[in-house]
Amino acid sequence: MTPGVHGERTRSRSFPRRCPAHLDASAWLGHATCMKRLSPGRALLVLLPALSLVPLLCRCGGDDPAKPATTGTGGTGGGAGGAGGAGSTSSGTAGGNPDGGVEVLPDLDPALAWYGQNRQRLDAFIDAHGRNDPGYDPARRPVAVFDWDNTVIKNDVGDATMFWMLRHDLIRQPAGKNWRLTSPYLTAAARTALDVACGALVDAGQPLPTSTSSACADAILSIYVDGTTTGGAAAFEGYNHRWISPGYAWLAQLQAGYLPAEIRSFADAAITEALAADLGATHTIGTRTGLAATLRIYDQIRDLIGVMQENGLDVWVVSASPQFVVEPFAERVGIAADHVVGIRQVTGGDGRLTANLQGCGSVPDGQNDGSGNVTGNALITYIEGKRCWINKVIYGDTGPNALTKTADPAKRQVFGAGDSDTDVTFLQDATAMKLVVNRNKKEIMCNGYRNLGDRWLVNPMFIAPRPRYDAGYACATNACVDASGAGAPCLDEEGQVIPEQVDSVY
Fold first, then answer.
1. Mean of the per-residue pLDDT values for the chain?
2. Can you tell me whether residue 48 is helix, strand or coil?
3. Alpha helices in 277-417 (DSSP H)
4. Distant-in-sequence, close-in-space partners of 278: CB < 8 Å, separation ≥ 6
């Protein structure tokens, strides 16, 4: 069978939990923290074995003691943001144990703040789709997909790695000093700006002295951060705005010539530094000030990932940052490298990364001769590209139709979480629940507030949430963009135009 098809690979649990998994009264009573995680009803479930009443209790799930005990749902109906809806009635659920006992499956930590009823609704979702589901199949675990930057973490690990590389002279002069080799979408103005600022500094293939050459650092940063030259000219052109952000791809492409392990080491050093930095700290690189120097893992999302994993969901990260930049960070929250899908590059025969991008769907692997002859290099894990890479890597669709929405809901993720317009397609594809972290990004907020099928939850940022977007979202007119980059109406999962929306969760 094809490697990478969902359900064929196994992964050891690496996310540490503090509470014993099985119903053992002496073990649980020895964990005060764990007892606090339980409601009175669940605490009674833990205590009863010591009173020899567990056979009576286990029949609450039916005549078969191997079947899970039932869990209640409650709450009144509500819209986006968790203002109601189904909710777990407890902080721990009892499921079937293959050994014949009762297994206590963790719910989300009630000590971690969520907006409105979002925690309760997430608990209910996990109960309905994890190991408490009577139809749960461990050979084909339901998939949950998380974006990474500003969804699992505060700020952007791609940015942190770019800033680290600039501060440590790790970006190399391109072959032949031809900047077109680094991206086929660089405009003539951008290439000229890079030639003027960086071209005379070192030979081709040598590290650029960006820690000391402000002009070169400024030129690269302006193109990467702003999408323009320092003179204000557009830096990229000629691309599909639903398939790729050339600036995102450029970070990966500027890493050409390195081994994957080297990029992982750069990223890991940047992550370690940024996690230790004071919240709100900034870098100055070249003459540019105010560049974010901080990364933080959101405690609520770390908890959500761990609880999903322990309840039997198959958790993945799909990110528009480079593959080998995200991998070492995802491992810190218990997601193995083989469950990370980032921007992926073609490697050379020596195992080193090239500036060409791996293909997906109908888009082939990239080739670029630096003279305008380009094949592929047109799609990354970005908007519709995230759907393609989910279909390709998680569900094994390596054919030309991976860019299209899969009709079979069993071959789509049950859950998606994101914060940006780059995430909207894979959240729309999620069959049961979608979580949006509100950063005032128009297309995803239009969908979150539209809340089709009452499946969307909106939550403010968990650290330094943004204030209300008073202007609201012009969803019906131009809040979204089409393939050309022009403003366009936003469409929901059913292809219907979304009405104007007010920002109400902040």
1. 87
2. helix
3. 299-310, 323-330, 384-389
4. 294
Place of tokens 């890479």: 389
At residue 94 the predicted structure's pLDDT band, cuts being 50, 70 and 90, is low
Select from 292, 259, 263, 262 the least CA-distant residue to 278.
Answer: 292
- List Cα–Cα distances, 440 to 321, 382, 443, in angstroms: 20, 18, 9
pTM of the model: 0.83
Kindly give the pairing relationship between strand 340-343 and strand 314-322: parallel
**Percent of the chain with pLDDT strictly greater than 90:** 79
Query: What is the three-class DSSP state of 217?
Result: helix
Count CA atoms closer than 13 A to 286's CA, side-chain side.
22
Burial group, residue 86, by CB count within 10 angstroms (0-12, 13-18, 19+): buried
Place of tokens 């479930």: 45
Domains of the chain by start residue, with CATH: 117-155+294-348+355-462 (3.40.50.1000), 157-290 (no CATH)
| Cα 24-313-152 angle, rounded to 5 deg | 105
Contact 436, 446 (CB under 8 A): no
Cα gap 189→228, rounded to integer Å? 9
Arithmetic mean of pLDDT, 70-80: 34
Question: Given a cut of 80, is residue 49 above it in pLDDT?
Answer: no
CA–CA dist 50, 14 (Å, integer): 31
34: enclosing H helix or E strand: helix 32-36
- Type of residue found at 27: A
Q: Token pair of 464, please?
A: 């330094």
Q: Residues 112-135: what's their mean pLDDT? A: 98
Main-chain phi, psi angles of 6, to 5 degrees: -55, 130
Query: Which residues face 341 on adjacent strands?
Result: 318
Q: In the structure encoding, which two tokens stand for residue 413, read together? A: 């993720």
Number of other residues whose CB lies within 10 A of the CB of residue 98:
8
CB 193 within 8 A of CB 231: yes
- pLDDT tens digits along 3-23: 333 333 333 333 334 444 444
Torsion sign, CA atoms 178, 184, 187, 190 = negative
* Dihedral sign computed on CA atoms, order 482, 236, 357, 273: negative
Catalogue the E-assigned strands of 42-155. Answer: 73-74, 87-88, 92-96, 102-106, 143-146, 153-154
**Beta carbons of 68 and 96 less than 8 angstroms apart:** yes
Strand pairing category for 456-460 and 433-438: parallel
DSSP class of residue 348 equals: -
Q: Which residues pair with 488 in a beta bridge?
A: 480
Strands 415-418 and 345-347, how do they pair?
Answer: unpaired
In whole angstroms, what is the distance from residue 332 CA to residue 297 CA?
Answer: 9
